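Pasting as-is:
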Amino acid sequence: MASTNRILTRWKGGLAFESDNPSGHTFTIDTSPDEGGQGQGLRPKALMLSSLAGCSGLDVAFIMRKMKLEVEQFEIAINARLTESQPQTYEHVEMEFHFHGDALKEEKLKRAVDLSVNKYCGVMKMFRQFAEVEVSTHFHRE
């Protein structure tokens, strides 16, 4: 049987909302002051990019642990371009994986990224339904 997620998002006044998560944690969604909000929370479209990075990051971290890879620092940077027409949606996403450390096993880390973005990350699969996604992997020796 397929699993489901249920969230509840409550209006907090103005343009702010509080949303929960199946884990029980909550966060605030708001827009910028120049768009009429208070800038007190996360913006919905940017939150989608965080979901993409988080989904793939969890996969890669799990694979790194399973392969016993030594990584001092790991970051995912995303730049995404929105369409000009309304409603604006992401049309192009550049996702960069950055690994830092002295003992990086580059081929294994590339394999971990590849497994995530091409096999395990469901958010990536969703993104590829509406945007072109480019993925790159970078290694930084300390």
